[in-house]
Write a structure and sequence with these properties.
The chain is of the alpha+beta class. The protein is built from 17 helices and 18 strands. It is globular and about 65 Å long.
Amino acid sequence: EDPNYSLSLSHPLTENHNLIPLKMNSRLLGVIPQTTRLFSALRTTKVFARTYATNASNTTKTVPAYLLNTPKAKVTRLPNGMRVVTEEYPGETATVGVWVGAGSVYENEQNNGVAHFLEHLAFKGTSTRSQKEIEYQVENMGAQLNAYTSREQTVYFAKTIKNHVAPAVEIIADIIQNPLLSEDKVEAERATILIEAGEVEKNIEEVIYDHLHAAAYQGTALGRNILGSENNIKTINRNDLVDYIKTYYTGPRMVVAGAGAIKHEDLVSLVEKNFTSIAKEDRTGQTIRDVPSQFTGSEIKIRNDDMPLAHIAIGVEAVGWTHPDYFVMLVIQTLLGSWDRTIGGGNNLSSRLCELVATEELCHSLSTFNTCYGNTALFGNYIVAQPGRLDDVVFECLNEWQRLATGPLQSEVDRAKNKLKAGILMQLDGTTPICENLGRQTLNIGRVLPPAEVFLRIDQITPAEVARVATTYLNDVSPAVVAMGPIEFFPDYNQIRSWTYWNRS
């Protein structure tokens, strides 16, 4: 029989609870967190817990056995400040990578784009390997080597068979510590990035989200895009890249993650052996929760009647990675849902909003986004619609926000929680997404949330909690709005603002 568990919903995600069954009178009655420090008085501590398909008044929650049998994440902090985190799974493949707390939010107006520029140069040669040698070694191993830059982090990772983990770690360590950054490579990559920037401009969804950040976080680092302006791309030089590495590629800002057929002690040894020149002091004194992120309700409209459909994003400020309401916002995101015309269902969709837009043909597609950062998030809806239905679909989206703020049904909250839990587990299918989860959580939260704790936090969410959080973040707010395309009949901003609340006598 599975032990029963309970956990305070107010515990911050940054605290390592290490849930331990508590025996009393020869029965497993519950679990207490090893830590008792609670989140800084954001709300009164309450314990919510319930069993599957039972009355909400029950005080315990049964955790499925398969969640308790998942491999535990092991973490080691090295003397230089680097953290090594692993989850070992049986198999023949593994993914290893380095997560660096270095993204566009740590740039300024003058060097915006330098993190992305540096990531592009990573595989162009080091002081010990030419570009051709890197490519040959990766191909000979049959590995996959990749990198990407986001607003908060830069990531280098490789997927390979278990016998080639050591050379994969050595290559990643080499490109991070010894990039050549020669003038000819910088100039060649400058041309490539300018072409990439042109391609991004053709991706309407990317453009909309960049404009949404620019509107919502105007005047702050989050408002700048990842690639940087065209002028910055043309002027970034080798000195800018070297300075950025020295400042942000330091031990306390780096996490090495591994998942799959890899032993924790082996990866620790490989990191100690290969990452020898990483500085142990953080030269910035700045974490992702220290980045300024002032939200401003505003709008950007770009009318283009040559486009067949209008693209709209409406976003409000929500909560960051470590906030106690993080999982409640995920449930709200699931309640609002996503839909497009390729999806069947119609009257049988789990989301009331998606069911409405499908049956009334209000748009071509609708999605709900929840883009989290260290101390803030953008939450809202992205809509692609025909010009004649813009006011209808925008009204229905905001109307659904207000319905959730008044209290959703127990049945739809339960359904959303089940869907969310299934989605979280399905995302962790394979060594690469598991490794991504390990690196991202360790860097952003400071620890890895075990699946049992994730399920406990989700199961404690009640319709009252959903209503409280929706009222706090979705009710009577000034959103950031971006509209592009044939938007002649797009509603006025003041009209949209008035739809974020209900007048009740």
